[in-house]
Amino acid sequence: MGAIFIANYPRPADNNYKFDMDYYLKVHMPLQLKHHKPYGMRSYHVIQPEKETPYGTSPYVVQTIEFWDSVEGFFKALKEASQEPSDDIPKYTDIKAPFPIIGEIKGSWVDSTFELKH
C-alpha cells in the first residue's frame, strides 16, 4: 500500500501566529508537488480545522495530508530533492516546528460515489 504524510501546524498557546493560506495554496504546495512528485507524491489535501468543535479547541491551525506511493519514496525525496520547499516555509508561516507524521497505509475505504470537490 501507499503512504501518508501529514504536516500538522500547531496552534500557539497565545493564538498569535501568521499563516498565509493564499500563499500556501498558490505557491508553496505547487512547489512541494513540483519537487516531490518524481519521488512518488500523488496528491495533497489542505485542511483548515474548525477552531471550536464539540470536542474542544483544535490544536492545529492547518493540516496538510499528502498521499505517496511509499514511505521509502517520501524519505528519498527528503534526502535527494531540492531544499526549496523547506526554505519556503518562513514565507507563509511563523509557526515553529510543524509536527509531521509519516506512515504506511494499512487499510482504506472510499465510497464509489464519493467525489472530492473544492
UniProtKB/TrEMBL annotation:
Q: Which InterPro entries match?
A: Dimeric_a/b-barrel, EthD_dom
What family does this chain come from, according to its entry?
Answer: Belongs to the tpcK family.
**Record-level Gene Ontology MF annotations:** oxidoreductase activity
Query: SUPFAM superfamilies recorded for this chain?
Result: Dimeric alpha+beta barrel
What the entry lists under PANTHER family is as follows: BLR8190 PROTEIN
Q: What is this protein called?
A: EthD domain-containing protein
